[in-house]
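Each letter names a residue; the fold follows as tokens. Both lines appear below:
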Amino acid sequence: MHTRLLQRVCKPAAVGSVLLLVLLTGCQTMTRHAAVSAPAEPAHHQPVEPPADQAPIAHPVVHTASAGDPDLMLFGSDPGRQMAGSQPRPVASLQQQTFTEVGRDFDPDIDSAGKQVVFASTRHCERPNLYLQSTKGRAVTQLTNDPASEIQPRFSPDGKKIAFASDRTGQWDIYVLDLENRTTLQVTHNESHELAPSWSPDGKWLAYSRLSPTGAWELWLVSLDDAAQRCLGPGLLPPWSPDGGELAFQRPRERDGMLFGIWTVKIDHGEPSWPTEIAAEPDAALICPAWSPDGSQIAFCRVPVGGMSGGGATFRPSRADIYIIDAEGTSRMRLTDGGANFGPCWSSEGRLFFSTDRDGRERIRSLRIAGPVKPNLVHAAAMHEETGTSESAHAGRLSGR
């Protein structure tokens, strides 16, 4: 039996949980976009209110902590469906990277040298701030400290700046923090919510997501030289490929539960080509794509419909696993086995960082991937954890809370 899940996030602490997922499906009011680039600014229409009576596939509605936020459709939920079978994963080691005992650590990103990790955390207050830490240490440097929420930090290619999303003006906008000058520049000033910044490899552009007046998420580019903006079409969470020629992103179907799949689109002088679907499932949302350092693979999160039920201000899916797939859509492999695992990102050495609640509290961990993720596959119990000593243990299932 289908269920309707309505979750209104009214506590600041819930912001990280909700936007860590950054939407598992598209809004039911989403309109069709052309595959080619859209006009520079979307037409201004009145937001479409969700109908009082839902169709058989329910669409949970979530409000963020910002005043005046619209209803954000997270995912279609059908707990009656069966989850897809699991696949094996390659030999890898699991290493704990952050060690907070209070709050949560999430949204990791690694600098190009592979020496520092930046992430969002609620370790010191209910609203998330940004922190910097060595990938080999435990001491953390707090980068932001204000009443707003800061999430989704992303290093610039030279490691001197960090782009992030913040609701400090009452809505979500994109900002850039200069680590050397300790100054912050607001990049977007649109009345719509804007999230998920990603740097072009040359550091001249940011890709990001904007919530249109119709309730659909769109991919946008903004020049850091002259602030020129360009709409690329529908999509969310757009990481730039290492060679600068493509964007990966998540995009929903326009039917059934509107669950997200993983797509790519080639970019030539700021103009998009035809979008290509890399991975999709009828019974799971595929979200949070991340390119490997050589651009040959994409990591992503799989959230089955069976793990989507829940409620309350601190809601998050009970299950989400990390997968890797070739950029051509082949050789898909699962890297985690249960629990809630989100936000994958790669280091320059090919190590995969992500947040997980495997021990009851969300922290950042990383996997060492030995060579191409194809041969030497083993059962889940073969993955062991690095503890900093000679002792190792089987990871087993990454248990949820």
Residues 1-22, 27-88, 310-314, 372-401 have pLDDT under 50 and may be disordered. The chain has one domain: 14-30+53-394. The chain has one helix and 30 strands. Residues 264 and 286 are 13 Å apart (CA to CA).
